[in-house]
Amino acid sequence: MYGIQTYIDRLISDSTPEKPLWNIEKVNSGKQPYWNYIDGCMMSALYELYIITGENKYFNFVKNYIDYYVADDGSIKTYDKNKFNLDDINEGRVLFDLYGATGDERYKKAIFNLYEQLKEQPRTETGNFWHKKIYPNQIWLDGIYMAQPFYCRYLTAFGGCDYQDLLSQIENVRALMFDEKAKLYYHGIDCSKTVFWANEKGLSQSFWLRSIGWFLVALADLCEFCHDGKVAKKLSGILKEALIGVSNYVDKKTGMLYQVPDKSEKEGNYPETSGSLMVSYALMKAYRLGIVQKEYGVLGKNVYDAVVDRYLKVSDNGDVELGGICLVAGLGPENNLRRNGTYEYYISEPVVKNDAKGVAPLVMCYAELKRFVG
Question: How many structural domains comprise the chain?
Fold first, then answer.
């Protein structure tokens, strides 16, 4: 684990809500601070590290960061419910932790504020949340991670543990988006079957590693958050099937998974950090929860080690950096035809260092590994 603790500590010591080192999209664009899922990933990961280590520097950083956005009345700076963007729900996960730790009512008010969006979120004909208002009738794997763990924690804390709607949405994803032959999930589906990137079934054309990773992490977290044994068993079955399937795509030479996982030998493809770490985390956590056998937990650790060995390097200026991270990828909207879900599209997106979509899973794996080897 050489350098990882130093790397994490440097990220938090040199980051503020105005300029987080891990949010490459924000830093590169010059945007003002805004409530977003990228910061949310980091806050959840750092809070998990606080739970594991008991070191208050992680708790204090997360609290101060969230306090920048959350006002006394529970309103959230820059958040706009009317965008109906599932990404904006994700940063709310850590509010449950802060409320439980402090009893501060503003965190509870902010939780209810975000839940109002889910109550009104448009839904597909299957009953699933639209990914965003600008993506009508679409389910993305990314959105399962962005919304469902928050939804589950809300139902556990305030909703009487009635998980049937949540379970139905996950089961719909399994029924509609899982490829029985490849044993992988497609990135998105347009239930109207009209958007330009969709095939005759409404599905996107290719598998994208990080979208699969988002889904796996979501399922692993849901299995831990869910307090209904029957529902948790069904979620565990879907997770186990998905993990066994994706494990077949761990590359023997690199020990990682590729940006487009089923085409590792194709020109332009590359071992991708964020998705590999998400798979690693889900494998290790699923083993800890008793969902998969130890061999899969060991595989998760091996994938983590492979990422660290390949992409966690000391730069010329002496700083530790994490490379190999796909900056961003998506499907559409209609005015962005380049994002068409093809192999060529997924490998064309920028590859960067130190972005939270890779850094947060690194921290999550680091925390999970402390449990795994302990």
Answer: 1
Supply the DSSP string of 48-83, one letter for each residue. HHHHHH--HHHHHHHHHHHHTTB-TTS-BTT--GGG
How many other CB atoms are there within 10 angstroms of residue 82's CB atom? Answer: 8
Q: Is residue 132 part of a domain?
A: yes
Cβ–Cβ < 8 Å for 124, 191: yes
* CATH assignment of the domain containing 8: 1.50.10.10
pLDDT for residue 374: 52
Candidates 298, 293, 294, 266; CA nearest to 280 is 298
Contact 243, 174 (CB under 8 A): no
Helices 141-158 & 164-177 angle (0-180, nearest 10)? 160
Q: Is residue 366 part of a domain?
A: yes
Tokens of 3: 């350098």
Q: Is residue 110 part of a domain?
A: no
Q: What is the pLDDT of residues 285-295, one digit of tens each?
A: 999 999 999 99
Which residue segment(s) compose the domain that 280 sits in? 4-27+123-373
Residue 2 has pLDDT above 60, yes or no: no
Helix (H), strand (E) at residue 139: strand 138-140
Helix (H, G, I), strand (E, B) or coil at 188: strand
At 317, the pLDDT band (50, 70, 90 cuts) reads confident
Q: How far is CA 306 from CA 253, 299, 355, in A?
A: 10, 10, 18
pTM of the model: 0.97
Q: Any idea which residue has 């068993």 for tokens?
A: 233
User: What's the first-to-final CA gap in the chain, in angstroms?
Assistant: 15
Residue 200 domain-assigned? yes
| Displacement of CA 362 from its chain's centroid (Å) | 12
Find the radius of gyration of the CA atoms of the chain. 19
DSSP-derived 3-state class of residue 29:
helix
Q: Provide the pLDDT confidence category of residue 38 given band limits of 50, 70 and 90.
A: very high
Q: Quick one: CA dihedral 92, 311, 183, 264, positive or negative?
A: positive
